Each structure stands twice: as C-alpha cells, then as structure tokens.
Amino acid sequence: MSIKIKYIGLILGLLSTVFSFLFFGRAQGTYQLLLTSGLLTSTIFFLAILFSKETAKSKILWTLVVLSAIAILALSEQFLINTSYLIFINSNSNELNEVNSILSNKTGEIHIMNDDITDKDSLLTVVEKDNLIELRRKLDVYMITKTENEIYYGLWGFLDVRLGLIYWTKDENPDIKYQQLKDRWYH
Questions:
Q1: Do 102 and 128 touch, CB atoms closer than 8 A?
Q2: Which of 13, 18, 83, 134 has the most beta carbons within 10 angstroms of its beta carbon?
Q3: How far does Cα 9 stand from its chain's mean position?
Q4: What is the pLDDT of residues 135-178, one digit of tens each?
Q5: CA-CA distance, 39 to 16, in Å (whole number)?
Q6: What are phi and psi of 32, to 5 degrees?
Q7: CB 143 within 8 A of CB 103
Q8: Do residues 89 and 186 lie in contact, with contact meaning Cβ atoms separated by under 8 Å?
Q9: Which is more confident, 174 or 49?
Q10: Do the Cβ atoms of 27 and 141 come closer than 8 Å?
C-alpha cells in the first residue's frame, strides 16, 4: 500500500481533531477552527478512501484507524481539556496571583467586564481598579467576577454557554459541581 494524499489527509484531520482539545479552555477560537477543520478534513478523506477503488482489506484497515482515533479521543478528551486550562493557569500565573491577591480578601461582590468595574460596596481603591482592568486585559478574559466563595475568570462565552476558571477562596472544598484542576483552581 503506497502512501497517498488521502491517507495523509485523513491522519492530519484526525490529529487536528484530537489536539484541538488542547486549546479548549485557553483559545476557544483556535479550538473551534482545529476541531471543525479536522472533522471536515478527516470525513472527506475517509469517504474518499471508502468510495475509491481500494481493496476491502485497506478499507477495513482505515476504518479501524478512524475507530481507534475516536476511542483515543473519547478516553483523552477530559485530560486534554484539563491540560488546556492548566496551560492557561501556568502561563498567566503572575497575573492570576495578582488578581487573586487583590480580590480574595474583599467581602462583597465585584464584577469586571471589559473596562467597567461594578463595586457596589466600594471595596476597591482607584489604584486597585486600574490594576484589575489592566490585568483583565493582559489575561485576555472577558470578565472577572468575585463572589462570596470564588473568583471566576470568564475565558469564553456565547449566548448561554460560558467557559471559565474558578479560584476558590474558602478553606472548605466546593461542592461536586466543579472539577479540580490544581490547588484552589477549578472549572
């Protein structure tokens, strides 16, 4: 069996689909592009293999390759998603620590969206507000929200779908609806 473009295209499409999940939490646009193009590419090339003049043995082999890729994705998806969040946390640790240090000791609710801060209890100084706006820009998150128990970093949102990280500020663990990434970080 010689190496043909349709085999290479199928493998590249499958790899793009699997590795797209490394961008799930930290670069949603890249994730969507890699996932969509990977699914489309692998589907087109797989159909090209199935409907070409390949031998039955070759078609079965490539079907097993596709099924193996699906199994690998099913087994590794959550790990890859968690890894994408951890990459974001580790690559932005200084900025995240600075935001957490400013907001953790505040008792009320604070909302930072774009360049606007809602601080109804006037808990923040002008310098803290300026720092938080600049840190939100550096982190490239669309919102930061401080509530009684957590600091939420909105990484991506569209209509009623929201993806983000939670820094838990209380000593007791949160309920089971959150999945722990490391230390006090959840998603």
A1: yes
A2: 13
A3: 26
A4: 999 999 999 999 988 999 988 867 667 788 989 988 777 777 88
A5: 8
A6: -65, -40
A7: no
A8: no
A9: 49
A10: no
